[in-house]
Design goal:
The protein has helices spanning about 5-20, 25-40, 45-70, 75-95, 115-130, 140-150, 160-170, 175-205, 210-215, 225-255, 275-280, 280-295, 305-320, 325-375, 380-385, 400-435, 440-450, 460-470, 470-480, 485-515, 515-520, 530-585. With about 600 residues, it is mostly helical. About 30% of the residues are buried.
Length: about 600
C-alpha cells in the first residue's frame, strides 16, 4: 500500500482519521494507530509482517538485557548483529552471491524486499544503541512495536529516534490547528508526488531511457540536449518524489500529534557538497554521523583515520541505498568530494591557528608601537577614537567606503554563485551514477553528457518536447526552492504578530482594571466635582482600551479565519488535483520504496 494510491487516499486514511479522532485518550489512540499500522504493513504480505514482529520482539528482549547488564557489551553486539544479518540476508544476499550463481547446481529464487526493512532496521539499531549509551531506557513491547511499525514512517522514513517520539507516545495534544496544518502538508506532498514527480519521471525516461543503448545500437542515439534533459528531470524527480513522501509522513504525524524531524531542507539550494548532505535525507546523514562516524573519532583524528572514517561512512551510505555496485560507486563519489572539502577546511583551520600564534607572539610589540605612534601624533589618536581610521569597536578592521562594500558584496555573491553551480554539477553527475545500475549504460550515459556517442547537439523532437513542458519545468524548479516555504512562514509570522498584539492589549486592560482600586482610594483627596471628572475620564480611557482590544481580537479572529481558510482551500485543491491525476494515469510507486 502506498500513500499515493487511491485505496489509501480514499479508503484507508479517512477510516483511520475517523476512528482515531473519535477515540478518547492517548493510550487508546496509540492502540488505534498500532492496529492500522499493522494492517498497513499486512498489505505487503503476512510473512513480512511476521518478520517485523520477530525483529521487534528480539529488539525488545535485547533492550532489557542491555539495560540490566550494561557492563556486558556482548548483548549489544549480538542484538545489533542479528538486526544487520536480517537486513543483509533480505537486501544483499543476491548481491554478494551473484558472482557464485553460475557455480551453484540449483537456481536461487529471488525474493521481494520487505517494505521499509532498511528504515525500520536502522530505527531498531538506534533504539539499542541509545539504551547502550544510557540515553534511553528499555520500553514496553507495545510502545516499541508502534515505534517500529508506525505507518507514517515505515516505508520511507524519516529515520526517527525513539527519544524523539517518547514524550508524544505518553502525552500529546491534538488541536484543530495541528489537524489543519498536518492535512495541508499531507495534501501538498501528495500533489508534489502525483502532479510533479511522476511526470518528471516520465520525461526523464522519455529523454534518456534506461535502455537507451538499444536505440543507440539501432542507429538512433540520444542527442546531447536529450541526455542533459533526462538527467535534469531525473534530478528533479528524485527530490520531488522523496520529499513528497516526507511531507506526507510529517503531515500525518502532525495530524496525530507527533512532531517528526524534517528530512529535507531544500538541498538544491546548497553551496557545497557538505551543505547538500546536511539538507538531503537529514535523518540518514545524522544516523551515520551519530552511530558510525563519531564513534570512530569523527573529524578530530589524524588525516589517515579521517580518510578511513569518511570512506567507511560513504561506502555504507551508498550500499544502504541499493544492492548494486553503482550505489557503492555513488557513495565513493561523494566521499571524494567530501574529503576534498574537509581537507580544505582543515587547511584553513591550520592557517588560522598559525595566524593566531603569529599575532600572539608579535601582537604585544605591534600594539606598543601603535601606542607610541598615537602618543606622538595625538590628532591621529583622536581621529581613530572617532572612527576615522580604525573601525570603532572592531580593532584591526578599517572602515570601508560604500564603493568598497559594494565591491566586496559582489565578490561574495559571485563566490556563492560559483560554489552553488559547482554543487549542482556534482549532484547532477552523482544522480547519473545513481540511476544506471548497468555499467555499460552508465559509461555511455556519462559520455553522452560530453557529446561522445551522441547523434547531435540537439534534435527537433527533444526541443519541441521541452517547449511543451516548459511551464511544468519551471514549476518543478520552483517546488525545489524555498520560495513557497518563505511565503508560508511570512503568513505564519503575521498571525503570530496579531497574537502578540492581542496579548499586549489584554495585559494593558488588566493593568487598568488593577489600578481602579488605587484610583478609588485617591479620589477622596479631591472635591466631588474633581472626583466625578476623574472617574469619568477613567471610564472613558478604560472603554477606549477595551474597544481597541475588541477590535484587535476581531482582527485576529479574521486573520486566523482567513489563514486557515486559505490552508484548507489549498489542501482541498491539492487533494482534488491529486485524485484526478491518480484516476487519469497509471500508478507509479515511490522511488525510495526499493530501499
Amino acid at each position: 500500500m502506498s500513500f499515493s494510491s487511491l485505496f489509501f487516499t480514499a479508503g484507508f486514511l479517512p477510516l483511520f482519521l475517523l476512528i482515531y479522532t473519535a477515540v478518547p485518550g492517548v493510550r487508546r489512540k496509540n492502540r488505534v494507530l498500532l492496529c492500522f499500522s499493522l494492517l498497513f504493513y499486512l498489505a505487503g504480505g503476512l510473512h513480512y509482517l511476521l518478520l517485523l514482529l520477530l525483529m521487534t520482539a528480539l529488539s525488545f528482549g535485547f533492550g532489557y538485557l542491555i539495560e540490566e547488564r550494561r557492563g556486558e557489551r556482548r548483548w549489544f553486539v549480538i542484538g545489533i548483529s542479528l538486526l544487520l544479518l536480517n537486513l543483509v540476508f533480505f537486501k544483499y544476499s543476491a548481491f554478494f552471491l551473484r558472482p557464485l550463481l553460475p557455480l551453484l547446481p540449483f537456481h536461487l529464487p529471488g525474493a521481494l524486499l520487505p517494505l521499509g526493512i532498511s528504515f525500520y532496521s536502522f530505527r531498531l539499531i538506534s533504539y539499542l544503541s541509545d539504551i547502550q549509551s544510557g540515553r534511553l531506557r528499555a520500553q514496553s513491547f507495545e510502545s516499541l512495536l508502534l515505534y517500529t511499525a508506525d505507518f507514517h514512517i515505515i516505508s520511507q522514513g524519516p529515520i526517527v529516534r525513539f527519544r524523539e517520539m517518547e514524550a508524544a507516545l505518553r502525552e500529546r495534544r491534538m488541536s484543530p490547528e495541528d489537524f489543519c496544518e498536518g492535512m495541508f502538508r499531507f495534501c501538498l506532498g501528495l500533489s508534489k508526488k502525483t502532479l510533479l514527480a511522476d511526470h518528471a519521471g516520465k520525461l526523464a525516461g522519455q529523454f534518456l531511457p534506461l535502455d537507451f543503448l538499444h536505440a543507440a545500437s539501432q542507429g538512433n542515439p540520444p542527442s546531447v540536449l536529450a541526455s542533459w534533459l533526462g538527467g535534469i528531470f531525473y534530478m528533479l524527480q528524485i527530490y520531488l518524489d522523496f520529499s513528497a513522501y516526507s511531507d506526507m509522513a510529517l503531515g500525518l504525524g502532525r495530524v496525530c500529534g507527533f512532531d517528526y524531524p524534517e528530512n529535507f531542507d531544500y538541498p538544491y539550494a546548497a553551496h557545497s557538497v557538505r551543505d547538500f548532505w546536511r539538507r538531503w535525507h537529514i535523518s540518514l546523514s545524522s544516523f551515520f554521523r551519530d552511530y558510525v562516524y563519531i564513534p570512530l573519532g569523527g573529524s578530530h583524528v589524524s588525516l589517515p583515520k579521517l580518510c578511513r572514517n569518511l570512506l567507511l561512512v560513504w561506502a555504507l551510505t551508498g550500499l544502504w541505498h541499493g544492492a548494486s555496485w553503482n550505489f557503492v560507486l555513488w557513495g565513493l563519489y561523494y566521499f571524494f568530494f567530501i574529503m576534498i572539502e574537509n581537507l580544505r577546511r582543515r587547511r584553513e583551520r591550520e592557517e588560522l591557528e598559525e595566524e593566531r600564534v603569529g599575532t600572539g607572539e608579535e601582537g604585544e610589540r605591534k600594539e606598543e608601537e601603535k601606542d607610541r605612534d598615537r602618543e606622538e601624533k595625538p590628532e591621529e589618536k583622536a581621529a581613530e577614537s572617532a572612527g576615522g581610521k580604525e573601525g570603532r569597536g572592531f580593532p584591526g578592521f578599517r572602515r570601508q567606503s560604500a564603493g568598497e562594500r559594494g565591491k566586496r558584496g559582489r565578490e561574495v555573491r559571485g563566490r556563492r554563485l560559483l560554489s552553488h553551480l559547482y554543487t549542482l554539477l556534482v549532484v547532477y553527475f552523482g544522480w547519473i551514477l545513481f540511476r544506471f545500475s548497468d555499467f555499460h549504460a552508465l559509461i555511455a550515459a556519462l559520455k553522452l553528457q560530453f557529446g561522445i556517442g551522441a547523434s547531435a547537439l540537439w534534435d527537433p523532437i527533444t526541443a519541441l518536447s521541452l517547449w511543451n513542458n516548459l511551464i511544468f519545468f519551471f514549476a518543478c524548479l520552483l517546488a525545489s526552492t524555498p520560495l513557497f516555504h518563505y511565503i508560508g512562514i511570512s503568513m505564519q509570522n503575521g498571525l503570530q504578530q496579531s497574537l502578540s498584539l492581542r496579548r499586549k492589549e489584554e495585559r494593558r486592560s488588566e493593568r487598568i482594571r488593577d489600578n481602579e482600586s488605587f484610583g478609588d482610594d485617591s479620589l477622596q483627596l479631591f472635591d466631588r466635582e474633581s472626583e466625578a471628572e476623574a472617574e469619568n475620564e477613567h471610564e472613558i480611557a478604560l472603554r477606549r482600551i477595551q474597544l481597541r482590544a475588541r477590535r484587535r481580537k476581531r482582527a485576529l479572529r479574521r486573520a486566523a479565519f482567513f489563514y486557515y481558510l486559505e490552508r484548507g482551500a489549498a489542501a482541498l485543491l491539492f487533494l482534488a488535483l491529486s485524485v484526478m491525476a491518480m484516476v487519469g494515469s497509471s500508478y507509479m510507486p515511490f522511488l525510495y520504496n526499493q530501499f
